[in-house]
Automatic annotation (TrEMBL):
GO terms for biological process: lipid biosynthetic process; membrane lipid metabolic process. It comes from the Bacteria. One of its GO terms (cellular component) is endomembrane system. Keywords: Lipid metabolism, Membrane, Oxidoreductase, Transmembrane, Transmembrane helix. It is a multi-pass membrane protein. Residues 80-213 form the Fatty acid hydroxylase domain. The chain crosses the membrane at residues 6-24, 36-64, 76-93, 134-155, 298-319, 328-346, 366-394. The keyword Ubl conjugation does not apply. The lineage of its organism: Bacteria, Pseudomonadati, Bacteroidota, Saprospiria, Saprospirales. InterPro entries: Fatty_acid_hydroxylase, Sterol_desaturase/TMEM195. This is Sterol desaturase. It comes from Saprospira grandis DSM 2844.
Length: 401
């Protein structure tokens, strides 16, 4: 977790560089709503992860300490083997996350963006850690020390950040053959029929080549999922696919089909309901992205609030180990409410403004009763008053435009 926190400034620096590349090359690599939603999903995953990581970290350590069959020595050769094995098990976790409905419901969050830039790398599901943990248990049984396991696993996660870009077209041929690259991963994020369920590798692309899931990037990639999410709300993004599964199960007359749906491939239906659904063909030039027209000043308000939320979430991640569970839960509510609200504003939802007014009033009160803020309470009160003033100004401009 500490490594990930230290990586945050680097993430945003690289995003800034990619923004400049898009500006000078006259490419629209970023859109406000999509970018905010992407990063919000990542923030949501990190803050809720303070609970979920107990399952992942705790279960691995418990198996290693009580049930390991061997004790693999800490040696450079074992680290290389561990790196390969982590990537191997990641491949199968990632592949099954595309091939099993209940797993896809968590992983789909990462694929919902209709753009492809470095912010998409941060778009992660709040629930995916629950599923991924099990795939790495064999390494604990084999006796790989938890510390190098977590360090190398974190490196693999960090590696995948840079491959989420259109600014890099191709790497040298030998590199493209061995490693996962922006070109390979662009294809993975495509909803073109030929790209569905391809290129699952983390750091290496070799397992895709060996197990028949490799597809080179040829046709222009159309990003996103076959049923577009059509919202910038990061909270709903985590539940949308599960809601679809629940609705589909409710239309099935047989209980065995309702249960089978959760372990079948995405798009599966019983034969009497049409069978496996085909992936529709797409054309990037004819595909319209979700992009509600934002009223004047709303983007400025959202950006101001978003910077404050990101700073607050970063501080939370730095001190979360010192907090008790009630405070962790309360701060999760505060942060997730803020992220969901900004999504509602960008979606132009009717509930967005009333909920935002309530949040601006409730947040300082909640923090005041949770922590001994001392003189900091005046800064918090000033933030609330200024934010309310900006919100009133936005409504005034909207009413008089």
């Amino acid at each position: 977790m500490d490594i990930m926190i230290y990586a945050i400034p680097v993430f945003f620096l690289l995003i800034g560089i990619e923004l400049l590349i898009g500006y000078f090359s006259q490419q629209q690599l970023y859109r406000l709503g999509d970018t905010v939603a992407n990063i919000s999903c990542g923030v949501g995953q990190q803050v809720t992860g303070v609970f979920i990581k107990i399952i992942g970290l705790g279960s691995y350590v418990y198996i290693y300490e009580h049930w390991r069959l061997l004790s693999v020595p800490n040696h450079w050769a074992s680290y290389i083997l561990l790196f390969i094995l982590i990537d191997f098990f990641y491949y199968w976790f990632h592949r099954y996350s595309h091939e099993i409905n209940s797993f896809w419901g968590a992983h789909v969050v990462h694929h919902q963006s209709e753009d492809y830039n470095l912010s998409v790398a941060l778009r992660q599901s709040a629930f995916q850690g629950v599923f991924s943990t099990v795939f790495y248990w064999p390494l604990a049984f084999l006796g790989f020390d938890p510390v190098p396991f977590f360090i190398i696993g974190t490196f693999q996660t960090l590696y995948q950040f840079w491959i989420h870009t259109e600014a890099i077209r191709k790497m040298p041929a030998w590199f493209e053959y061995v490693f996962n690259t922006p070109s390979h991963h662009r294809a993975h994020h495509g909803r073109n029929p030929e790209y569905i369920d391809k290129n699952h590798g983390g750091t290496l692309i070799l397992f895709d080549r060996w197990f028949g899931t490799f597809e080179p990037e040829k046709a222009e990639v159309v990003y996103g999922v076959t049923k577009p999410l059509a919202t910038y709300n990061p909270i709903w993004a985590n539940f949308d696919y599960y809601a679809d599964l629940w609705a589909a199960a409710g239309q099935m007359p047989r209980w065995k089909d309702r249960l089978r749906l959760w372990v079948e491939r995405p798009g599966w239906l019983p034969e009497d309901m049409g069978g496996q659904q085909k992936v529709p063909a797409v054309d990037r030039q004819k595909t319209e992205k979700y992009n509600p027209p934002l009223p004047p000043f709303l983007p400025i308000y959202v950006l101001i609030q978003y910077v404050i939320i990101l700073l607050g979430a970063t501080v939370f991640l730095m001190v979360e180990s010192q907090l008790d569970w009630p405070k962790l839960l309360a701060l999760n509510v505060v942060i997730l409410w803020a992220l969901g609200n900004l999504g509602g504003l960008l979606d132009l939802k009717k509930w967005g403004l009333p909920s935002e007014y309530l949040r601006l009033l409730a947040t300082p009160l909640a923090l005041y009763f949770l922590f001994p803020l001392g003189s900091y309470i005046w800064g918090l009160a000033a933030w609330a008053i200024i934010s309310l003033g900006l919100l009133f100004y936005y409504q005034w401009r909207k009413a008089n435009s």
